[in-house]
Automatic annotation (TrEMBL):
<keyword id="KW-0663">Pyridoxal phosphate</keyword>
<keyword id="KW-0479">Metal-binding</keyword>
<dbReference type="GO" id="GO:0051536">
    <property type="term" value="F:iron-sulfur cluster binding"/>
</dbReference>
<dbReference type="Pfam" id="PF00266">
    <property type="entry name" value="Aminotran_5"/>
</dbReference>
<dbReference type="Pfam" id="PF01206">
    <property type="entry name" value="TusA"/>
</dbReference>
<protein>
    <submittedName>
        <fullName>Cysteine desulfurase</fullName>
        <ecNumber>2.8.1.7</ecNumber>
    </submittedName>
</protein>
<comment type="similarity">
    <text>Belongs to the class-V pyridoxal-phosphate-dependent aminotransferase family. NifS/IscS subfamily.</text>
</comment>
<dbReference type="InterPro" id="IPR015424">
    <property type="entry name" value="PyrdxlP-dep_Trfase"/>
</dbReference>
<dbReference type="InterPro" id="IPR016454">
    <property type="entry name" value="Cysteine_dSase"/>
</dbReference>
<dbReference type="InterPro" id="IPR015421">
    <property type="entry name" value="PyrdxlP-dep_Trfase_major"/>
</dbReference>
<dbReference type="GO" id="GO:0031071">
    <property type="term" value="F:cysteine desulfurase activity"/>
</dbReference>
<dbReference type="InterPro" id="IPR015422">
    <property type="entry name" value="PyrdxlP-dep_Trfase_small"/>
</dbReference>
<keyword id="KW-0411">Iron-sulfur</keyword>
<keyword id="KW-0808">Transferase</keyword>
<keyword id="KW-0408">Iron</keyword>
<dbReference type="GO" id="GO:0046872">
    <property type="term" value="F:metal ion binding"/>
</dbReference>
<dbReference type="InterPro" id="IPR000192">
    <property type="entry name" value="Aminotrans_V_dom"/>
</dbReference>
Amino acid sequence: MPYFDTASAAPLHPVARQALQAALDEGWADPARLYREGRRARLLLDAAREAAAEAVGCRADELVFTPSGTHAVHTGVAGALAGRRRVGGQLVVSAVEHSSVLHAADAHAAAGGTVTEVPVDRLGAVSPDGYAAALGSGTALACLQSANHEVGTVQPVAEVAEVCAAAGVPLLVDAAQSLGWGRVDAPWSLLTASAHKWGGPPGIGLLAVRKGVRFAPQGPADERESGRSPGFANLPAIVAAAASLRAVRAEAEAESARLRVLVDRIRRRVARLVPDVEVVGDAERRLPHLVTFSCLYVDGETLLHELDRAGYSVSSGSSCTSSTLTPSHVLRAMGVLSEGNVRVSLPRGTSADEVNGFLEVLPGAVAGVREKLGVGEPVTVAPVAESLELDALGLRCPQPVIELARAIGRVPVGGTVTVLSDDEVARLDIPAWCAMRGHDYLGESPRPGGTAYTVRRTA
């Protein structure tokens, strides 16, 4: 059964498995002790730190291991903000950061700080000018992911880092999705990553803080990991994480080129094989193994289940399913379609036959879901009114858009259709449908129990 969700968690790399087993036998003692078992454990910890620091591109004494990538983000954000509290309380983040960064930002705002979100374009990328406009004399920290976890777009980290450096603001880079493919070549101040994203064991994160960056660890003091990550280290997992990072980086150039060809095939053929689909994210500046697309008139959760039944494990970059009524913050920030959202992220070693098999199954799965929802070819009818109003209150994604598609032919060109909906997803998907279908989105207005979305027919 092909597993196509490595953006969530990559399968354990064989080198990680071997290193984990060896470290369980040799690295179980406390590396802080002076007897021989402790010294042996300390040697393993030091070697792992050296290997990880080399892969990151920092000094070994700048890097600590944490219990997860999320823990690394929270520790890094809190420590950097506290270290620069005299400068001010502003935190600048992109609108498409991972939830761990946004949760840290929420905690900062709840404690009385301010948070500024930098918008992205329709491909999911920020602009350096956007960061330059957001930075001020009271900015304590800026955050930017190296590449987006939902759509794969690579961010202009080097350019943003230069803007931050010119303003005297440290930049924290979340490199969770990209570190297995290469270093972040930019003058960053702090960097975080997570081992299970590159094929290491879960429960190990990295936090690198450059020398000279003001940093004040929060919480009770601890003598381990430079006082930045308290508690007894999971040494076997740390050794496996460092060993697997070195291994995947040795394979990265060849695998990147191979998987990029397969992802390009998916991007091209999905658009040809599936009607009414939008492939999202940057086609060029992207991670080599990840592609995301959204299908009109499709319930995302049902589509994922259909693909799972067909033998393909994929995920959704969107929370827009029948059980959760809010679209992904990433897709919302990009202004793209969230219906029927599918994220395919190929693990190392994925074959062309596996990708071709997925492309054979996908059109039928989408068609089957649409058939269950009653979506068919639009019936040509004579216009019945200059404007129509549809009551879609209580209907969930993607039903309000389906009702709009059925009704648009009942008004003449220049006529309007207004959809009343209480589903938050409609705020994103109705404008996206207009962009795909070539109609004019006229905006929204509040109504009792929901929101009215108005569309003008132009074709």
